[in-house]
Amino acid sequence: MRIRSARTRLAVSVLALGLFLGGCGGSDTGDVEAGSGSIGTTNDINPHDPSELRDGGNLRLALSGFPPNFNTLSNDGNDTEIGAMLKPMMPRAFSTDASGALSVNHDYFTDVALTGTDPQQVTYTIDPRAVWSDGTPITWADIQSQAAALSGENKDFLIANTSGFERVDRVERGVDDRQAVITFAEPYAEWKGQFAGNSMLYPKSVTATPEAFNESLRDGVTLTSGPFRIASIDRAQNRITLGRNPAWWGNTPKLDTITYSVLDDAARIPALQNNEIDASGLGTIDEVKTAQGSAGIAIRRAPGNQFSHITFNGAEGSILADPELRVALSKGIDRQGIATAIQNGLVDDPQPLNNHIYLNGQEGYQDNSAAVSYDPEEAARRLDELGWTLDGEFREKDGRRLEIRDVMYQSTTWVQIAQILQQNLAQIGVKLNIDTRGGTGFFTDVIQPGDFDIAQFSWVGDPFPLSGLPQIYAYNPDDLQGNYGRIGSPELNALIERTISELDPQKAIELANEVDTAVFEEGFSLPLVQAPGNVAVRDNLANFGAAGLASYDYTTIGFLN
User: Fold this and answer.
1) 457 burial level (CB within 10 Å; 0-12, 13-18, 19+)
2) Does residue 525 contact residue 519 with C-beta atoms inside 8 Å?
3) Contact 492, 522 (CB under 8 A)
4) How much is the pLDDT for 347?
5) Distances (CA, A) of 524 to 53, 89, 244, 326, 486
């Protein structure tokens, strides 16, 4: 499942996207060590055995704003910061290591297995100890209820992603209440991701009705199941505090609390220096240097599963409704120049991301971006052919100026990227206006309704990249999910359907790259760069930092004695 982020610097429970903008000719990086630009098989979390950590302590992290909805399965709650905050509190079926390899999460399930292929059948056996925070057992009924809510059959459920449940025929009780058997009507390649990665299991009280799903977690979440639970929400102090869950049956956490404070982007590094928070993503070389020179601060690095991009608005009536126009504009954008400018000194060899589905370093990654290769002369020629002719500095057609609005979260980094875009597009006669917005309501009030011509934000994935195909790149006008640009075709929908139905992993990769090529060719969106992974943390903080593709074990995070 893909989860979105408006920010370039995130709550550090997930990897922060480190972005730097300097002159395209380079910058003074001093003795800052550059990291790799591709996902590897390691992470950087200061690993220590829990016995080496002191009991207790408060891990202090930052949020950009209060969650509009604590239900990450909903369109309003599908945000990386919210997901990161919920992961210490909610069940997931699989854990991942730094290379993305999966293992059953035995805190919640004794086994999760593909138990049939004709039809496809998956059996979840729930750990008999697993309970919700009020002591009630986690049962097959919770799984059944979530599958029904995400199936897409009832459009009143405002879901972010069907997660393959539209392909499920039925969910049945197994040998007892602690076992669920999912039978698919159509094969689903990414079945392991239905209750893993960014998809968590919620209690049936949240997923039983559209009203509960859409509204019941707007002000907080009460029924959880993890080593931590919500202890307090203080809107006056802009603070959310997690405390230990007394109903937790697993290993006792080392930490007493995890506190999230709402901070502006510019306030995070000073807060780290002033010992007000314990970790922050690093957005620029200057911030890396500042953190590097601060007492008690260490820098952790491990590329992760986040990338920045530009989404085009191709809705009917939009100025960019024509796919040929979108591709022409894309050819006028120097993505290599952007990568060089913003990641100079942070990555060994800055490169743009050339795939919408796989990240550089993941199995399946290949460059499918030929359709949008940078060629400003060709871009200008195509604009001429489309009838957008120069009239002074900018182009016009039928009395309408080729003027577009670039909408983004109010962040220095995003604005600086937009300024490069502005310069690129001006060279081919396109006027770009920069339109910044606050973090609160950014997706709910701006991106989801399509209040943009182009928009800048990030996608944060997990080890289940195919699950994002129908969520983002398929187009159903009655069920947009993550297709905020309202772009697509029946042909692309059919290709996506073939891909997510393919149970052979290698064939699925081949089909996924066909999807990616088609997505580039229709000017759906334009990937920019993936995260280099610079995170500043308190130097005595263990088992936390730059996680790469790995999931955290929140019971082992803590401070050294």
Assistant:
1) buried
2) yes
3) yes
4) 76
5) 48, 35, 44, 8, 9
- The tokens 């920069």 sit on which residue? 434
Angle at 198 between CA 240 and CA 444, to 5 degrees: 65
Contact 14, 306 (CB under 8 A): yes
Sequence-distant (6+) residues with CB within 8 A of 477 are: 486
- For the segment 405-437, what is each residue's pLDDT rounded down to a tens digit? 999 988 877 998 999 999 999 999 999 999 999
CA angle 405, 411, 413 (to 5 degrees): 90
Of 1-10, 30-39, 182-191, 488-497, minimum mean pLDDT range: 1-10
Is the per-residue pLDDT at 370 higher than 70?
Answer: yes
**How crowded is residue 54: how many other Cβ atoms within 10 Å of its Cβ?**
12
Which residues touch 270 (CB under 8 Å, ≥6 apart)?
Answer: none
- pTM listed for this prediction: 0.79
Return the closest-CA partner of residue 128 out of 103, 148, 147, 110: 110
User: How far apart, in whole angstroms, are the C-alpha atoms of residue 205 and residue 147?
Assistant: 13
Burial of 200 (0-12, 13-18, 19+ CB in 10 A): buried
On whether the CB atoms of residues 462 and 30 are closer than 8 A, the answer is no
Segments of 152-203 assigned E as strands:
168-173, 179-184
In this predicted structure, the answer to whether residue 8 has a pLDDT above a threshold of 50 is: no
